[in-house]
Amino acid sequence: MTEPFFELMFAGIFVNNIVLAQFLGQCPFLGTSKKMSTATGMSMAVVFVLILAAVFTWFINNLLVKHDLDYLQIVSFILVIASLVQFVEMFLKKMVPPLYSSLGIFLPLITTNCAVMGACLINAGKEEYLFMDCIINALAYAIGFGLALILFAGVRERIILARVPKPLEDASIGLVTAGIIALTFYTFQGMV
Amino acid sequence: MAKSIAQEFKKGLWDEIPPFNLVLGLCPVLAVTKTIAGGIGMGLATTFVLVCSNLLVSLLRKVIPPKVRIACFIIIIATFVTIVKFALEAYAYDLYNELGMFIPLIVVNCVVLGRSEAFAYKNKFAPSIADGLGIGLGFTLSLGAIGAVREILGTGNLTFNILGQFKYEATEIFGSSFEPFTFLIEAPGAFVCVGLLLCLMNIVGKK
Lengths: 192, 207
Known about the structure:
Largest sheet of chain B: 2 strands, antiparallel
Number of domains of chain A: 1
Strand order of the largest sheet of chain B: 1-2
Mean pLDDT of chain A: 86
Structural class of chain A: mainly alpha
Number of strands of chain A: 0
Low-confidence stretches of chain A: none
Order of helices and strands of chain B: HHHHHHHEEH
Oligomer: heterodimer
Shape of chain B: globular
């Protein structure tokens, strides 16, 4: 490890929060935040897949760099992530049915979650990162995603009860709310 | 055929304009629209990928088996994204640096995959190109509009320069006493700005 554990975690969860500071994974962030239960399901699925994807893409990336095949990065990463998601889905269905039924439809959706692809690309772009750095970074991003999603879902559940002006309904008020939550995370900027 | 090619093209510019009327693919919308140039550059890159992948998917639609179609779409899209990435690195290095990670991430943009799945896989190649071009230009327009709002209100200036060909520069549009809303070019401002524009679109669209 090149950087201290705490620093990596804090930077990944708060300072460079993947949803609110780096704008990755907006689709699940807005799509699955209407109910608290779906938000927790999605967060768990992301933590699970993001760490697995970080492990696999680390090996793939090393292989590509070694053989001078950098230009295949995008194609191979997305293929690895897509097949990983399929594999995890089949594995869980067979071996751990309770977890499978609680993650449910969120697993296949993760393929097009740019938070997963984005975190892998960030890891690949940092040449000084060793294996453990990548894994901890991925864990921090995943926790940051979960934290933002669950906070947001809590606020959105309240908004349903409020009277919102007609044109602002649904996605529009959601984005403005997300902006206010992003403002709280923005205060961490520059701490690490 | 229910609709003409011109109609397929036109629907992307207003009726189904992304990201406002289909709230998909928001990541680049929020991230690269600090400036109008970044927004339009991103929009054009996405348009290229959309048109090419739509064309190839519609040509191969009889060959691609339905069960593995998503994987096939993703490989086709990833190929064109790689082309765009290297082209931008070679010919528009400033733009390449500004967009950064969001060029490879076009591959997971729901708008692109969505058009392959919902349109190109079921239609002939001419309407598919028109559809890709329409949706792509609609996307470019919205990104440019968001970029313009954020740049003008957030910095008070407007600079526009794509490949050194189309140059436009205006400083202190509202006069020197105008204090720019720096909030708008920071991360939280992106959410609020897109949210309010969406609200505006709802008001205009519902009339």
